[in-house]
Amino acid sequence: CVNLVIVGNYMVGVEYSFNVPNNNAVEVWDISNPAAPVSVSNLTLAEEGWSLAVYGDYLYVASDWSVPILSIIDFKDPTNISWIKDIQLAEIPYHLRIVGDKLVHSATSILRLFDLTDPLNPTQVDAEALSNGRTCAVDGTRIINRDIIHKVVGADLQFVQNFDYHGNSQGDGF
Fold this sequence. Notes:
By secondary structure, this protein is mostly beta strands. It is about 0% helix and about 55% strand. The termini are close together.
C-alpha cells in the first residue's frame, strides 16, 4: 500500500507491505514529466509507514507495528531526504494531515493536534476522543473522521457535528 502527497514537481510516497519484510520506505519521485516519473530519493523506515504529511522542509511519517512512531524527515532537498528523529506516540497513528501550522494525528480512539511552530519539536496542544478515528480528511480547517467533524480554531479542536456513517469498511479507507 502507498500513501502519496504531491509537493511541487515531486510526489512523495510512504510504502508498507504486510508480506514483504523490510519493505518500509519513503520514496520521492520527480514528476516534472508526469508521463515518466523518476525515483530520485528513498529512505528505509524502521517501522511500516502508514501516512505522511509535508510541512515546509519536513516530512512527518506515521509508522507502527511494534512501537507507534512519528518520524521527522529532512525534505529541504527532495533528491536527498534524510531522517532527523523519531517521536514515540501513545497510539497507532493512522492518518496525518496539516491544517495551517498544525499537524492533525488521527488514531483509532483519539484525534490529536500538534503545533508545528518549531517543526522539529511538535507540541501537542489539544486532543479529542473519537469512536473511530481511523479515517481522516481535511477540508480547509475542518477535520472529517468516520462519523464526526471537528474544526481547528487556533490551538483548539472544536466539535462541529456528528453524521451518520453507513459504510462497512474498517474505517480507514482500506
